[in-house]
Amino acid sequence: MSGLRIPLEGPDGSGTAHALNLLAPNPSPMTLDGTNTWVIGRGEDVLVVDPGPDDPRHLARVAEHLRDRRVVAILLTHGHHDHSGGARAFAGLAGAPVRALDPRHRLGEEGLGDGDVVVAGDLELHVVGTPGHSFDSLCFWLPRDRAMLTGDTVLGRGTTVIAPDGDLADYLRSLDRLRATAEQVGAEALLPGHGPVLPDPIAALDGYVAHRRRRLDQIRQAREQGATTPREIVEIVYAGVDRSLWPAAEMSVRAQLDYLDGS
Ligand SMILES: [Zn+2]
């Protein structure tokens, strides 16, 4: 059993037996409550996944929490700033390398990619390549807790967007792969990059796939009604959504148009 830790309020302090979320103070419509920084391991040796934005108070809080424990490596689920911005500064505090798929975000010799196994003490993290939200998105499977760290591929609330450096066809394949993996290994929790822990991985992934298919259908229909530009489509499909989210919606519509038009 994963022994889910679910705090009374918000995602800070949530997680599983060997994964603890220290929430960064950068809430926004795009980042929900803020970025989840995950500390993996309870022993001497730990891994830190996504140090978050370059916020000295947050990084100091994470370092303070770790005290004398050794950070074996800092891992990035992807290179977007709200996850990676503080990596370099935190590497300085922790004396640890930064491993990421994108070489531009690495510090040290080692990269990170599908199939890699990262070890800290007696814990393992298995890297699952899940491009789509961004070209460099990775998930990390923590067998000990039957938990999957999902970065922005699956969020704790709402749905994610396909960023300009992402791809919807890749994303749909990644969701299928995550679902198959979750079923095969008996995953009991998804630990997202933003928002609360998801205790039912299969239901969450099915919900994501269904949502994408629904949106694609709505976009097809909006086009049949005469909408042509991404903005016009947003005004129809996202009419019920808060306008502060429309720029993100427009980005998502662009990705979906690319997908529908096969480019
Ligand atoms: Zn993010």
TrEMBL record:
It comes from the Bacteria. Residues 34-194 form the Metallo-beta-lactamase domain. This is MBL fold metallo-hydrolase.
